[in-house]
Amino acid sequence: MAKKRVVSWERKRKRLGYFFIAPFIVGAIFFILIPLGTSLLYSLSEMTIKSDGTGYQLTLVGLKNYYKLLAVDPNYRQVLLEAVGNMLLNVPIAVIFSFFIASILNQKFHGRGLVRGIFFLPVLLSSGIYLRLASVDQMTAMMQQGGAASSADAGSVSTAFVNMLTALNFDTSLISFLVSAVDRISTIVAMSAIPIIIFLAAFQSISPSIFEASYIEGATGWEVFWKISFPMVSSQILVCVVYTIIDSFTSSSNVMINLVHQTSFTSFDFGLGSAMVWIYMVIIFAIVGLVFAILNKHIFYYD
């Protein structure tokens, strides 16, 4: 009689781990790696639709699409710079706003749960179902007409705001930044929902005994915030910055996303659209890597 093979507990755990990650591996292969390879092939090719309607034909053209975008087409470079500029303006405002809103929501006050829910509403309202309903809603159309009718009043308010800042001898660049920030309030609030939750979880993970010890030693609330709370959530600042950068670059309202969609699915130039995406993706990874390298040097990791 053959001796029964005994499988160690460590090997069983490894097999169980492979079983649980198998769906992710299969999904990554079929929904990430294969589409990425196809997109790269499209970016190096020129696609033509067959006249008989039986499909399409790919002709390898090398780096022609990339050369056209970077050296010939001025529109793509302009849109790319606009997307990066919007990111550089939106991300610092959204992260700072999220940080201080989370620090306020971490305090104990009546109606705290309701206020937290209100700040998370932009995530629900920005869902695809809501946007689809809003696009066909007659009330939305009426509101848009009303907004167009009152655009002159809004312009006068903006002008008065700029004149007030100018009268106070604010620097011109600072005035432009403040006006641009005010114009982006709705975008900033929508981008801040997830970072607020991340920061709030980070604040709540700090042990209360640390604060108690600091207050016993005579530390003020200001000192506790900047010397304890801020350093101990600094790792989440890096997470929120990276998340907000990617969210800004991949937002449906991003000018680059709209240009790629128009080029690929309206003009049916999938080769040029794929090249746009690959250039865009390389720039995103470069920016995220640079930001990570800079911020990671100033992160405090609590062991």
Tally of helical runs: 14
Indicate the percent of residues in helices. Answer: over 70%
Output the helix-strand order: HEEHHHHHHHHHHHHH
Rg estimate, integer Å: 26 Å
Give a short account of the largest sheet. Answer: 2 strands, antiparallel
Query: Percent of residues in beta strands?
Result: under 5%
Low-confidence stretches: 133-144, 146-155
Strand arrangement within the widest β-sheet reads 1-2
Mean of all residue-level pLDDT scores: 80
Task: Give the overall form.
Answer: flat
Task: Let me know the number of strands.
Answer: 2
Secondary-structure-based class equals mainly alpha
How many angstroms does the end-to-end distance come to? 54 Å
How is this structure best described in words?
This protein is mostly helical. It is about 80% helix and about 5% strand. It has helices at about 10-45, 65-70, 75-105, 110-125, 130-135, 140-150, 150-165, 170-185, 185-205, 210-215, 220-230, 235-250, 255-265, 270-295, and strands at about 45-50, 55-60. It has a two-stranded antiparallel sheet. The chain starts with 8 loop residues before the first helix and ends in an 8-residue tail after the last helix. The relative contact order is 0.11.
Notable features of this structure?
303 residues, mainly alpha, two-stranded antiparallel ribbon, 14 helices, 2 strands, 3% strand, flat
